[in-house]
Amino acid sequence: MRAIGIILAGGSSTRMTELTTKRATSALPIAGGYRSIDFALSSMSNSHISKVAVFTQYNSKSLTQHLSSSKWWDFGRKQGGLFVFTPTQTQDNSYWYRGTADAIAQNIDFLKSSHEPYVVIASGDCVYKLDLNKVLEFHVEKNADITIVTKDLGERDDPSRFGVVSIDESGLVTEYEEKPIVTSKTTVSTGIYVIRRRQLIELIEKAGNEGGFDLVKDIFIRYRGLKKLYAYQMDSYWSNITTVDSYFKTNMDFLNRETRDYFFNQYPMVASKIEDLPPAKYNAGSKVTNSLISSGCIINGEVSNSILFKEVYVGNNCTIRNSIILNDVYIGDNTYIENCIVESHDTIRANSNYVGEPEKIKIVLEKNARYVL
User: Fold this and answer.
1) With the CA atoms of 187, 257, 264 and 290 taken in that order, what torsion angle do they form, in degrees rounded to the nearest 10?
2) What's the confidence (pLDDT) of residue 272?
3) Distance of alpha carbon 242 from its chain centroid, rounded?
4) Among the four residues 4, 29, 314, 349, which has the most C-beta atoms within 10 Å?
5) How confident is the model at residue 99 (pLDDT cuts 50, 70, 90)?
6) What is the b/e burial string over 169-186, where b = at least 16 CB atoms within 10 angstroms of the residue's CB?
7) pLDDT of res. 229
8) Which long-range contacts (CB under 8 A, 24 or more apart) does 327-334 make?
9) Which pTM was predicted?
């Protein structure tokens, strides 16, 4: 593909509360075995983009560890590769990334040293599969300056969390507003963009000289009347996970057979870092219905309508319903959990009871000693 990729994975979200206390949003676990960033990386790799840069900043440790080997997404090659950029103090600059445009500006040499004519920009906190070749073909056909991938949310989510757009019959963006307080529009930007590399360099440098640090507000929206912005309308699954509610619902979507089949069985596949763990073990007396159980789990109790990530231990006489249990959690005997997200590396004491509400999911954080002498 005649493009390089940029994944913006440095942001944090206060709406994620405790879930992003120790990790970036792009590193959040999804569907038992993925991280959020895997979906953007896989879409780029499957579209034959061979050179991708990931810009990290906030709580980047677990994300950087996840990206430590590029082979999982087929970026381990002589030409191209996977590049991870973090803010770096230099003689000329001592700032952290002050926005998405500033993140690109501080690594502008990556763009200038590349030779591909186009750049595909994506955020690392969305769940989807997308053939970016079709987006680039659309971009070229329309002779667009900037192409924005959009999605009609319908009633699934709150569009005011995103950039909302209006589109005419030809696909031209006629209105573009970032995170309005109130809106009746349901078509939103997915955070995926295509732009010519030289034009991006020019716009980034101009915005930096004028004190603009945000890619959307200071470039795309500002130049809407001067540049031709077109919208490529996405008709497949897409979800953003930057709130607790959307994160929970996105994971629960994988309990739906159609969603699970789309991501797990239909080509192209979504790749992720693989760990050498034994298959899940179901001991006598365990009962599991409509749930995803990951490798390394040991189940003794009852699990229904839930997702258990890697290396979860469920004790005797436990009941887990409509919940997400993240990696490496030990759940003691006689515990009841419903409508909850249990944070990773937790130890839940025996006889515990945690119950949230369907419309207000409870986040469980316990740091009890797992082994007591």
Assistant:
1) 120
2) 94
3) 8
4) 314
5) confident
6) eebebeebeeeeeeeebe
7) 96
8) 327/29, 330/370, 331/301
9) 0.93
